[in-house]
Amino acid sequence: MKTIINAILRYRVLCLVMVAIITALAFPQLSKLEIDNSNESFFQQNDQTKVRLEEFKETFGNDDFIFILIDTKQPIQTQHLNRIKELVRELNDKVPYLDKITWIGNVESITGQQDTISIKPLIDNFNLSQQEMQQLRDSIITDPAYHDRLIAKDGNTVGILLEFINYPDDSVNPRKETPPIVEQVVANYPDLTTYIVGAPVMSYQIDADTAQEGPIWLLIALIAMACVLAFTTRSVIGVVIPLITVFIAIIWTMALVAIFGFKLNMLIIMLPTLLLCVGIGDTMHVIAEFMHFYLQGTTPHEAIQKTLAIIYKPLILTTVTTAVGYLSFVFTDLIPLKELGFQAALGAFIALLVTFIFALPLLSFTRLKPSNKTIVVDGKTKRSKDFFDRSLILMCKMVLLYPKSIIIGFTIAILLAVFGLTQLKIETAFIHDLPTTDPLRQSFEFVDERMGGSMSIEFMVKTHKEDGVKELATIADIEKLQHYLNSHPMIMQTSSFLDQLKQMNRAVHENQQDFYKLPLSQAQVAEYLLLYESGGGKLLDQFVSFSFDMARIQARTKSLKLTDIQKLENDVNHFVQQQMPNRMIEATGGLSILSAVADYLAWGQLFSFTYAFIAIAIVMSLALRSIKLGLIAMVPNLLPILFSLGLMGLTGAKLNMIMVTLAPLILGVSIDDTIHFFSRYQYYFKKYGCYKEAYLHTVSSVGRVLFFTTLVISAGFIGFAYTKYDGPFIFALISIFAYSTALVTDFLVTPLLFSIFKPLGAETQDNQLSDKASLEQLVINHS
């Protein structure tokens, strides 16, 4: 290591030039980053959830839709019809990837007259008299084929349904392209009160918010960290070098993300800020130790060499353990978590590299000395105690004089956290993460309240034989399931090919509403389906497969929360098992995918944390050369995770896609403080042979820096508070709580564990301190 440091210092100008060149080359790559928050992006190619969705799309087409609700605020009139007709025509001309647009002006109408069946658009003439309009409106809002699908029962709200072809497999992201075009077209009709919903709209909004908020998170983090660094270090180099070092590491990491072709999402857009918070600690430790030696009168080169001699092993170890914490995400089944784990681990090593080849060469040019008011030189410089000193002295007194009180306090906290952990729930509803004043959430809620529902879940009924869905037994089961779905409180309405059969049966019986029901014989089913297709009906291919071996039931719902989605799926599964146990029915579509994501989140949280805990414990045991010491090191890092998740459960905060990263992140970051704390503890125990003496020297030497790094890292997470989504905001609060708790746990719990288990060996007899008076005097001496 000494040879490497000498080489870096010898070629320090070359190192700085090389860093500048690499950064200049990396910066243009950032423009190539793309954002993708689509549901499909969560799953691996062979995942059964994705396989079912792909099977559905190949058979029935795209399940994506955009629903435009037009509130006429009065029973729809002729002028409304003509205006909406113009809107539909413009949408059809300008919106890409459209399969078809459906509204009451062009929806299929199946009528019968004598022996003739007519299948044509519901409205032929848009220039209706007031009386004709009244008759048309009354017939539409009472027809189960249309009301609450394309028109509300009160006639005051009309819907336009945009359905899409299966998206081409190319570089274009249709969900990013179509919603803004729809919004632009709708904006040309300011006289219409419109609400636009659907999965593409939500996906587009999340992508747009992610792109907008990500840089702001980073900017706020930089400003907050700069302020805290200035307050704590009171030096120019203490502010400039850490921030520039980590900022360069962020640019290099994100450039590699672009080069490797990774897509950004709500998780990965957090990566720059996470790297800023994680990577800055190493640079702060380097600068703190450098200034310690530099102020003793050594040259910058000598100060750097002495600094690295003490902390290069902790620096490498903290980077390895942080990377291990991130890499635990690669064991999950969700692609965004896998990618975040790999990229964050890569970023941790890049941050260490930049510290060596940029921060150290830059430090070697140091000539400006910070104020002695904030620096202790070898324990000899006299200065007045500040808040940080008093806080550290107070914690030392608590540990040495009142260990039982600390044990009781932490025991109570652990019990509360365990109870809170049992109350923790997973939630992935992005719409409900938005404030109630957000226009997008208001649009979804309006559609949910007035008509049809803004989301959907699809059910595939598989018979595994040609013409299987034409059989009366299959039709009866589909009707039974559709009837159950329509009666479920979370379902707004359903659609299946039975709707066409019922309309055909009604048409054959001269449009009598009493015959809006299924035909009674197998022959009638075959006849009606043939008549429908030969008469120009175009909806069957959306609801049955080409060989009639599979049928689809679409269930439109409100924008449900995860617990509601899971309850709905469980209810349907229970109904199928009880009523039709031999029938194969599979759920897919947007809501089903959200439910699958939640399951992966739950198991991913458990697996990633377990892997991280075991891997870091092994690394710590090897690095500290003691299994006992390695396991003890994990305790003060396990408690903050327990306390944080317990607090979420107690306060009702939900474990969403962002929060699922919390446990491994806390473990990967908080272990850094523990490594520095343990390294100094070992050093001073070897020197003094007394655990209490070693503890006091450890706190007085490295405690202040740990205090400062925790403050700076916590300040960095303030950036996540600037968001309209609940997820990043709660993530920021819980992260700050976690890292603060980790620091307190290191200071209070670690020395108690050392005193109880004595992992460093037995104390020398002369240095055993037991009576209160001698302990008080020991604290006073170190104060």
**Low-confidence segments:** 370-383
Q: Helix fraction?
A: 55-70%
Secondary structure class reads alpha+beta
Rounded Rg? 33 Å
By DSSP, the count of extended strands is 12
Helix segment tally: 26
Sum up the overall morphology in one term.
elongated
Largest sheet: 4 strands, antiparallel
Rounded mean pLDDT score? 85
Cα-to-Cα separation, first versus last residue: 35 Å
β-strand amount: 5-15%
Strand ordering within the main sheet: 3-6-2-7
Supply database-style keywords.
single chain; 783 residues; alpha+beta; four-stranded antiparallel beta sheet; 26 helices; 12 strands; 62% helix; elongated
How would you describe the overall organization of this protein?
This protein has helices spanning 2-10, 12-26, 48-60, 78-94, 130-141, 174-187, 199-233, 236-259, 271-294, 300-327, 335-363, 387-401, 403-422, 430-433, 439-450, 472-487, 498-508, 522-534, 540-543, 562-579, 590-624, 627-651, 662-688, 691-716, 726-757, 772-782, and strands at 34-35, 65-71, 98-102, 108-113, 116-121, 157-164, 193-197, 263-264, 455-462, 491-495, 550-557, 584-588. It is α+β, with helices and mostly antiparallel strands and 783 residues long. The strands form 4 sheets. The protein has a 4-stranded antiparallel β-sheet, sandwiched between helices. Helix 4 (78-94) runs antiparallel to helix 6 (174-187) and helix 7 crosses helix 24 (691-716). The longest helix has 35 residues, at 199-233. It is elongated, with a radius of gyration of 33 Å. The two termini are 35 Å apart. Mean pLDDT is 85; it is low at 370-383.
